[in-house]
Amino acid sequence: MLAYEYQKRGDTAAALEAVDKMLKTLPYNWRFNAYAANIYGWAGKWDKVDSLFEEGCKRFEEGKVPPDPTNHYFIEVYRNTCFMHRKMDLLGKVVERGMKLFPDFRGIYEVAWWYYLNVEKDIDKLVKSIEEWLAHHPEDRQVQALLSQIRSGGIERRIMRAPESTRVKPPPTQSLINEDRVR
């Protein structure tokens, strides 16, 4: 929290020093990891953001993070950091890893669908990831309707929302999946 106070004052050096001390002093916690990544992103230290992301993913993959219903927020924080700073290359990595780490978290799949459509412009990848979701969640009628709409040509290769936009709200997932578009 001290780092955010320094950030608000525009003191990058002090914010980074506070985050570095936090990471060295406190035992590992994904919340501290993601918090630090947010500060490093603000400071333009994307190599640090990437290494913290990799470290966090590795800990999840190795079962070193205790089960908690809020663990998927690890991916959410990184997703938001990518959107805020328009780091679409890192966003691609975040969604790919997020779907593997949290296969039952629809939110990360929705971001992946937006990413595949608007950044990669890859309908085949979009369809494949939707089919993967439905293989494990066949009861998801909204996503079934989305897949039908895509297969019928209802979603063409176009940008639904400019990736250059720094606005994160409404979430880009709602631009791809909402009641008005899914019929």
Range of strand content: under 5%
Low-confidence stretches: 157-183
Number of strands: 0
Average pLDDT confidence is 85
In CATH, the architecture is: Alpha Horseshoe
Based on CA atoms alone, the radius of gyration comes out at 18 Å
- What is the CATH C level class, in words? Mainly Alpha
Distance between the termini: 45 Å
Order of helices and strands: HHHHHHHHHH
Overall geometry: elongated
Report the structural category.
mainly alpha
Number of domains: 1
User: How much helicity do the residues have?
Assistant: 55-70%
Oligomer: single chain
Number of helices: 10
| Sheet with the most strands, sense and barrel status | none
- Say what the CATH topology is: Serine Threonine Protein Phosphatase 5, Tetratricopeptide repeat
Describe what this molecule looks like in 3D:
This protein is mainly alpha-helical and 183 residues long. The protein has helices at 2-8, 12-25, 30-42, 46-61, 73-84, 88-101, 106-118, 123-136, 141-151, 173-176. It has one domain: Serine Threonine Protein Phosphatase 5, Tetratricopeptide repeat (Alpha Horseshoe), CATH 1.25.40. 64% of the residues lie in helices and 0% in strands. Mean pLDDT is 85; it is low at 157-183.
Structure summarized in a few sentences:
The chain has 183 residues and is mostly helical.
